[in-house]
Prior knowledge:
This protein has 151 residues and is α+β, with helices and mostly antiparallel strands. Helices cover 44% and strands 28% of the residues. It has one domain (9-149). The protein starts with 8 loop residues before the first helix and ends with a strand. Strands 1-2-3-4-5 form a five-stranded antiparallel β-sheet, covered by helices on one side. The chain is built from two helices and five strands, in the order ααβββββ.
Amino acid sequence: MKSKPIFSTKQLAPLIEIIIAVAFFATASTILIRVFSQAHNNSRLAHDINNATLFVGECAENIRASKDYNSVLGALGSAGFVKSEDSNVYHIYFDEEFSTTESDEVYATVTFAITMEDNGAGRLLSGRFICERTDGEELVSMETAVFMPDE
């Protein structure tokens, strides 16, 4: 006696179509999750670069507007920089929202290293700002200088 199939081929066609549709959407969602994740990371990086550039640019302008060494130190202090063990290096720490912080949750650091050259007619104070995240990614780097003539 010949056994009769449980499902006919006409009944299996919609089931195969549904399986193919589910497989397609699963693959598409996997790709889209990756794309959206990369877009989020790029957005976060652009946000961080923007905040770092604005902060460093403002600090550089304040230093260039300074008339003497003490006003440069005052500009660094008012921005929140703290002198490190090396007498010519200053640091400031930021959290994820780019608000200054002193807690353990440091997200980014801005470092400013000062060099001073005396050429007889005055002093050239120059420095380099470097802002980098704690993961080591450099967000922005900017050099600034101001000449302070002897009075």
